[in-house]
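Collaboration report, partner site 2.

Our partner group contributed sequences for two proteins of shared interest, and the home lab folded both. The records are reproduced in the order in which they were received, starting with the first partner submission.
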Amino acid sequence: MTAKPTLTQLAQQLGAELRLVPGADADQSVSGLSTLQDAEPDQASFLASANYRRFLSGTRACAVLLSEELAGECPVTALVVDDPYHAFACATAIFDIAPRPAPAFTRRRLCIPMRRLMPLPVSPLVR
């Protein structure tokens, strides 16, 4: 994705319930993903393990993907989902900006002719 999604768009794409905190804007752009500890105010994060619950209160993320049971503890906008880990994995695809390799084949021919790669012996019986 090249354009930054808004919180509303991100919630729709992930099937999340968007719970805005007072003063939050549903049209805020989200620039990417990060951990609860390292997230900037324009990034989203997630909480899927109780081991990281202690970082929730201090996060600077604009939104956090989390389960219903932890949504009440979230100090920022919550994106409530059934499976936060799965939702975060799906979110990585939304923010993936890795270049795609060029296709190896075209409709007309191989980009590198096979005859250059593997010369075939000609049988003496072929005329």
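Second partner submission, folded after the first:
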Amino acid sequence: MSSLPIHTTSPHKRSALAQILKEYPSSSAAAQCQRIREALARFACTSLELVRYLDCYDANARLHELRHRHGVGIGMSWVRQQTEAGELHRVGLFFLDKEASHAAS
């Protein structure tokens, strides 16, 4: 059994993420990056939350782009989160972190 904390998404957070999705409705990579930036400015978010609530299909690619193309400092820690199938999976919990900032190339 893992000692990682179990992460759940509060109704308040789900509502805020839905509002962010409404504000930046495109499926373009740029809009997905903007949604992730807006969300991380308010909350730490798991990769599952980025997919489920912000419609960022390949969240890891967008996180990589934000870090390495735009120089955004994004840190990560591990948590467990339940999937739609009811299983707990180890997922990344992402947050803004000035210490982790990367220079844009």
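Feedback sent to the partner group on the second submission included the following. The radius of gyration is 13 Å. The chain has a mean pLDDT of 93.
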